[in-house]
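User: I'm putting together a small comparison set for a docking exercise, and I want a reference complex before I start. The sequence is below, and the ligand is iron/sulfur cluster. Could you produce the 3D structure with the ligand included, as structure tokens?
Assistant: Of course. I'll restate your input first, then give the structure tokens for the complex.
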Amino acid sequence: MTVEASPKSAHATRRERRRPAIGFVSLGCAKALVDSERIITRLRAEGYAIAASYAEADLVVVNTCGFLLSARAESLEAIGEALAENGKVVVTGCLGAEPERIRAAFPEVLAITGPHQYEAVLAAIHAQLPPPHAPYLELVPPQGVRLTPRHYAYLKIAEGCDNRCSFCIIPKLRGGLVSRPLPEILAEAEALVAAGARELVVIAQDTAAYGRDVRYPPASWRGRSVRTRLFDLCEELGRLGVWIRLLYLYPYPQLDRIVELMAEGKILPYLDVPFQHASPAILKAMRRPASTERMIERIRLWRRVCPELAIRSTFIVGFPGETEEDFAQLLAFLEEARLDRVGCFVYEPVDGAAANALPDGVPEEVAEDRRARLMALQERISAEKLRARVGRIETVLIDGQDEAGRTVGRSRFEAPGVDGVVFVESSEPLAPGTVLEVEITAADVHDLYARPIARP
Ligand code: SF4
């Protein structure tokens, strides 16, 4: 994904046009997007303009992703394009943790920094383009500069991860878990809501581990003592009166209490738990919690506590050593778990991952075939689950119009960017951020169709 931010370039004042302008290309996941937002916020605070195109930029920052081989290739391609189109390029992000790889391909890159090294990125920019002398000319909005639309925002609560999943190099790239102070997160959340956000999407590499690195200390917030842990953070966020959605929850037992908050309506009844597999042998090789029965029990418990809960998960097929029997266990798990949304990836041997040393690699065509079979099964389940929602009244948050001019929204059960959508009948365009009640009239494999009832 490429995002170029241009908060006001089209109507830049003459004064602003004389300011050094930075172009920004942001690749990768929501976590990288938040890094980009922070860097852009600092640049705006220092008085730089943000350019909408390569031609308008005095320098281009490329925030790279280094998770999968395909993401690395995309990142290298983006660096090459920025060099060809502009010539002055600073590289940051996950792929920046391997500077020799970038230098080998593009020796002319001005500077390379790793993930969340905000100060180093700014220092590299200052070295090339000194900051303008009048940072007060334009105040940065208090919520910072965001790359997401105004009506929803990502809220990053921690960096890094203490787990050691064998297929993943994120802990090597980003280091161990570092939780942000609770008052800082809540102040940012309040500012985002004051700026118009109707939905906050809480993210981290390992969201459910929030606070563990600092041993869950109490913090003072609005005269109350609040523990630095996910449960308490969610309770506080739940007071803001907007949708609170949690992503990337490792399947820890403490999720049970988070589901209770969902049942109480304090946060959205939406659980994104990447299970990754269901065969105990493969989960063990992945260094993940390895009891499938317990996972099924847990899912049953969650649904008992919160019957309307939507569960999203992702899986990896073709992991080294995965036999047809392991894969059959995964399909049986999906049949039983009846998850609402599922993503499936074919295993990729990421450079530096421990799993690369495992024997019995699965041929690519076998892995691709398994992925197709898994998705075919899940499509049937997903279509059945969506069909069961026809006739229901649901609240929808409008995201805008698609290329075909259809009005697109999401209910509490669809996360932005990763799930299906709700197409809403509308004779006139509805503004992004509009909240309305709809009746679901039809469903297909991924999406729902609805007509408005009333605006609450
Ligand atoms: S929990 Fe996620 S980020 Fe952490 S090691 Fe596992 S896959 Fe990587």
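The two ends are 34 Å apart (CA to CA). The mean pLDDT is 88.
User: Thanks, that's exactly what I needed.
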